[in-house]
C-alpha cells in the first residue's frame, strides 16, 4: 500500500487573488489535509472514508478522487494494474482550505507513484488544475500548487512552470479557523464583479508585485503592511457570519492581519508570536466557530504532498 498526504492551503493569501497560495502545517503535528491510499487489486475499487466522507456525494462517479482515477487510467496509464483506491476525506467541503485540491493532488500524486508514470511536475500540475476547475467555477492554481509543492507559491498560467516559490518569515504564525459551515467556491465567485476598473487593476498589480519583491528581499514587515484584499473581501465578507466581528476583535489580541482563506468561510490571521496566536485562537474558538468548526495554529507546510507511512 502507498499513502499520500496533501495539506490544506490558503488560497489568495490576501494580496494575490487566484495567484498566491500557502500550504498549512498545524504546530500540533496533526495532519490537516486529505490522504489517499492505493494498492493493487483484482478490479478497480474506490472507497471514500474519513470524517467528512458523508458530506460528499454517495456515488463514486461524483467524487473527484474517483474521477481522477478514471481519467488517469484512460488517458495517462492505460496499462496500470487494477487498484484499490481509498480517499480519506479529512478536510471539510467548501471550507476555503482547498479541500477539493487536496483530494485531486493526493490522488494524482499517489497514482503517479503507483504506476511509475513519472509525469513531469508541470504535467501533473496541469492535470490537477483541470480537475480543480471542474468544481470551483474557474481555472486557478492557488490551492493546487501550494498543496502539491508546499510553502508560499506565486502561481498562474503565465508564471514559469506554473509556480514560483516565495520566501516567508519563519517567525510568522497562522491561525486558521473553519467556522463549521460550508461556502461553495462557485457561489463565492459569483458575487465578485465581472469587470474591474483600470485603477483597481493597477493597484492590484502594484500591491502583489511589491509584496512578492519585499518577501524575496526578506523585508517581511513591510510586506505585511501591504497585505490588504480589495479583490474579494469587500464582496465576500457578507457571506461569512462573524467575519466582520473577527476583523475588529483580533488585531486587539495581537493579529497583524485578518483575512479570508481562499473563498471562505475559513479565516486566517498572521501573528508574530505564539502568545498572540493563542489569544486569537481562543477568541475564534469562543466567538467564530460552531460545534462543527475547528481552529489550528499553523506554520507553513514546506514539504507539500508526500508519501507517508500508515499511521503517521
Ligand atoms: N473529493 C472531493 N473533495 C471535495 N469536494 C468534492 C470531492 N468530490 C466531489 N466534490 C464536490 O466538489 C464541490 C467542491 O466545492 P468547493 O469548491 O466549494 O469546495 P472546496 O474545494 O472544499 O473549496 P475550497 O477550495 O474553498 O476549500 C462540492 O460540490 C463537492 O461535493
Ligand atoms: N482563488 C480562489 C480560491 C478558492 O479556494 C477564490 O478565491 O475563489
TrEMBL record:
Keywords: Amino-acid biosynthesis, ATP-binding, Cytoplasm, Kinase, Nucleotide-binding, Threonine biosynthesis, Transferase. GO terms for biological process: threonine biosynthetic process. Residues 63-151 form the GHMP kinase N-terminal domain. Its EC number is 2.7.1.39. ATP binds at residues 92-102. The keyword Amino-acid biosynthesis applies. Its main location: cytoplasm. Pathway: Amino-acid biosynthesis; L-threonine biosynthesis; L-threonine from L-aspartate: step 4/5. Residues 221-289 form the GHMP kinase C-terminal domain. NCBIfam families: PRK01212.1-4 (NF002288), thrB (TIGR00191). Catalyzes the ATP-dependent phosphorylation of L-homoserine to L-homoserine phosphate. This is Homoserine kinase. The lineage of its organism: Bacteria, Pseudomonadati, Pseudomonadota, Gammaproteobacteria, Alteromonadales.
